[in-house]
Design goal:
Structural class: alpha+beta
Distance between the termini: 72 Å
Radius of gyration: 25 Å
Order of helices and strands: HEHEEHHEHEEHEHEHHHHHEHEEHEH
Number of domains: 3
Number of helices: 15
CATH superfamily of the largest domain: Reverse transcriptase/Diguanylate cyclase domain
Number of strands: 12
Shape: globular
Mean pLDDT: 85
Strand order of the largest sheet: 5-6-1-7-8
CATH class of the largest domain: Alpha Beta
Length: 409
Amino acid sequence: MFTHLWRVYSGLSMANIRKILHLDLDAFFCAVEELRRPELRGKAFAVGGRPDQRGVVASCSYAARQFGIHSAMPMARALRLCPDLIIVSGKYSAYSVASRQVMKRLRALTPLVEQISIDEAFLDVTDLPEDGETLARRLQAEVRTDLSLPCSLGVASNKLVAKIASDVGKFRARQAGKTGPPNAITVVPPGQEAAFLAPLPVEMLWGVGPKTAARLAEMQVHTIGQLSQLIPEVLSSLFGKNGADLARRSLGQDDRPVVTEHETKSLSQETTFARDVSDRQVLLDTIQQQSEQVARRVRKHGVQFTTVKIKLRWPDFTTITRQTTLSQPTDDGSWIYRLAEGLLLKEWRPGKSVRLVGVGVSGLVEGPRQLGLWDVETQKERALDETVQALRNRYGEDVIARGRGDHRE
């Protein structure tokens, strides 16, 4: 019914109706691994970290999913569910190459492509003469034929419903007992957004997390249709601005455009230790390496930063962030470690174990660099940074390391 109505609507002259596609590559990491290693096809395997190092499942094959394994699951638990599970270390450079190949084909169809992750993108195909379903089938066939990668698509008049449509298509494929890639295409015609969403669980709606879902369940609201029946003012009183957004989304309303470029708001690097770390020197060495990595990304993006921050996670999963802000923007990477070190030593106490540590910068701005009072003192430091990076680019990351005074107590 939905497909038929789309074709009826597509024949009408309705300039304000958009055609939005959401493309989601099916089990992307695993699909790439099967191309690299054909012997994995049909077998239960997972891409991710080692179980003895707190590794998690980044992606798993459809054969592995039959055992209840899913992404973000601890690898140790995945092995308990399937003792014969094959664990594959991720080859992220291969995934990046495959992702770029897919996005290149999307942009050949339309320049209005918004990549939202390595394996997902929105496309605005409103100006193309074909109907949404025809374009979706063409894209799916091209990606499968040219790149041997499976994908599912949602077609709707806005991003919200298109994304949910692709999720529903995958879910229905599982319900139907399909054991391989869903290769689903789900079309929601204009005017049918609310009807399509109504029977779905509220958790599928953007903005409904565990806490919001629990609060709605207390009100006997379990489906998006039930949510849409609530008075918007009631939702606003319960959930603030998010309540007003939920009222609109529950009716399938979303006027956000497809954004072809995203502003970088922050740059960061994190490390989760294989075992909790309480050694001061190890923590300092880690944040120095992270600071250098972030500094390289600052230079690569051609931006300046105003804020340096650290992230710490204790063994009980309690997580804190601390930050400090400079008086003016800088692209001097040496400041990242200097400030991160101070933030770390202010929060950490000798003997206290750390599960995760991270360093980042935010308050990013573009434009010509503004010299500050400290710049005269750091010209040699900047020249050293550039020399070190040149050596690493030519001979590898481990060719040289920055030194500093002994911080052991």
